[in-house]
Design brief:
Length: 96
């Protein structure tokens, strides 16, 4: 399943209710599960989520749904593992 990395930044609303963060994280895990995806890891940095989703559309829908709750601003990027990266780079056209 493709891997996606989401960078989250707390909104004012999210900071005001920071003590509810663990419950919000569990709610987010359930949101991912119900979409057929998996929230693999969560780190409190600015907050980084590493998740797997069956496709890009599901990942985008999850980002929009989590962001719409108003507690974080979210940016999601597709993460390509080393093997895929090597294949992609090998297929690049020559630059003149």
């Amino acid at each position: 399943m493709p891997t996606f990395v989401s960078l989250l930044r707390f909104t004012q609303k999210g900071l005001e209710a920071i003590k509810d963060g663990p419950a919000r994280l569990e709610a987010a895990r359930e949101t991912y599960r119900s979409a057929g995806a998996k929230l693999r890891e969560f780190y409190l940095v600015t907050a980084v989520v590493v998740a797997e989703a069956p496709d890009d559309e599901t990942a985008v829908k999850l980002s929009l749904a989590i962001g719409a709750r108003g507690n974080v601003r979210i940016e999601t990027c597709r993460a390509f593992p080393e093997e895929e990266c090597r294949r992609i780079v090998a297929g690049l056209p020559a630059v003149k």
